[in-house]
Amino acid sequence: MELLDRVRATTPLVHCLTNSVVTGFTANALLAVGATPAMVDLPGEAGPFASVADAILINLGTPHAAHRDAMLEAVQVARTHGTPWVLDPVAVGILPIRTALADQLRGEHPTAIRGNASEIMALAGAGSGGRGTDATHSVADAQHAARTLAHSTGGVVAVSGPTDFITDGDRDIYLGNGHRFLTTITGGGCALGAVTAAFLAVHDTPLLAVTGAHMVYTIAAQRAADKAHGPGSFQVAFLDELATVTGDAIVAEAIIS
Amino acid sequence: MELLDRVRATTPLVHCLTNSVVTGFTANALLAVGATPAMVDLPGEAGPFASVADAILINLGTPHAAHRDAMLEAVQVARTHGTPWVLDPVAVGILPIRTALADQLRGEHPTAIRGNASEIMALAGAGSGGRGTDATHSVADAQHAARTLAHSTGGVVAVSGPTDFITDGDRDIYLGNGHRFLTTITGGGCALGAVTAAFLAVHDTPLLAVTGAHMVYTIAAQRAADKAHGPGSFQVAFLDELATVTGDAIVAEAIIS
Amino acid sequence: MELLDRVRATTPLVHCLTNSVVTGFTANALLAVGATPAMVDLPGEAGPFASVADAILINLGTPHAAHRDAMLEAVQVARTHGTPWVLDPVAVGILPIRTALADQLRGEHPTAIRGNASEIMALAGAGSGGRGTDATHSVADAQHAARTLAHSTGGVVAVSGPTDFITDGDRDIYLGNGHRFLTTITGGGCALGAVTAAFLAVHDTPLLAVTGAHMVYTIAAQRAADKAHGPGSFQVAFLDELATVTGDAIVAEAIIS
Question: Which residues bind substrate (chains A, B, C) (predicted)?
Answer without folding.
Answer: 39, 187
